UniProtKB/TrEMBL annotation:
Task performed by this protein: Catalyzes the transfer of pyrophosphate from adenosine triphosphate (ATP) to 6-hydroxymethyl-7,8-dihydropterin, an enzymatic step in folate biosynthesis pathway.
Top-level division of the source organism's lineage: Bacteria
Enzyme Commission no: 2.7.6.3
InterPro entries: Hppk, Hppk_sf
A Pfam entry, by short name: HPPK
Family (UniProt): Belongs to the HPPK family.
Protein name: 2-amino-4-hydroxy-6-hydroxymethyldihydropteridine pyrophosphokinase
Pathway: Cofactor biosynthesis; tetrahydrofolate biosynthesis; 2-amino-4-hydroxy-6-hydroxymethyl-7,8-dihydropteridine diphosphate from 7,8-dihydroneopterin triphosphate: step 4/4
Length: 170
């Protein structure tokens, strides 16, 4: 059981590659999403918004960022709140990994692990995603992944070593 009264800390990853209008670019949408997240908790740190090459079938560049948030929401409550923000910002269900208005994932949680049918913390794929590790690296380099027991700094360096990637642009 996770008590609702507990103050939780989450590392969240944000990504967008579908503009909503000329003004609401992926970068602006990531900023908008961060503003909305400020309504469900206290933003403790905000990573840079980086322009990244798409991984997967989409051809459009992404704006990616990460932030740390403190909130009394439990992990399932947080997931629900994130889905509501995604829906508000116009995310529609498209094909998997297709262009998306906004995707907000829970990467790490101060409570360590969480696993059920709908939610896995740590996020199952984050260790191999430079677009998650790069912005997270600037705000939480020492946060340790409870499964591999490696820090974000270590995971980031390991990934860069294994597969030198085009560096995300700030
Ligand atoms: N840590 C997590 N953060 C967010 N969603 C998660 C997490 N673990 C499991 N999920 C589940 O994954 C489902 C699909 O999420 P989403 O549509 O963002 O996937 P995707 O972006 O296509 O792929 P990926 O999760 O690999 O980024 C969500 O509805 C949610 O139930
Ligand atoms: N660069 C980049 N590529 C992606 C991203 C993303 O956020 N950034 N998200 C995906 C599905 O979640 C698939 N591919």
């Amino acid at each position: 059981m996770v008590k609702t009264s507990t103050l939780h800390r989450y590392a969240l990853a944000l990504g967008s590659n579908r503009p909503l209008s000329a003004k609401r670019t992926p970068r602006a949408i990531v900023q908008e999403a961060a503003g909305r997240l400020g309504e469900i908790g206290r933003i403790v740190a905000t990573g840079p918004i980086l322009t990244t090459e798409p991984i997967g079938p989409s051809l459009r560049e992404y704006a990616n960022s990460a932030l740390l948030i403190e909130s009394r929401l439990t992990p399932p409550e947080m997931l629900r709140a994130l889905k509501a923000i995604e829906a508000d910002l116009g995310r529609r269900r498209h094909r998997r990994w297709g262009a998306r208005t906004i995707d907000i994932d829970i990467i790490l949680w101060s409570g360590g692990r969480w696993s059920n049918r709908w939610l896995h913390i740590p996020h199952r794929a984050f260790r191999t995603r430079d677009f998650v590790l790069s912005p997270l690296m600037t705000i939480a380099p020492r946060w340790s992944d409870p499964l591999s027991v490696l820090s974000i700094r270590h995971l980031h360096a390991r990934l860069r070593k294994a597969a030198p990637l085009p560096r995300p642009r700030g």
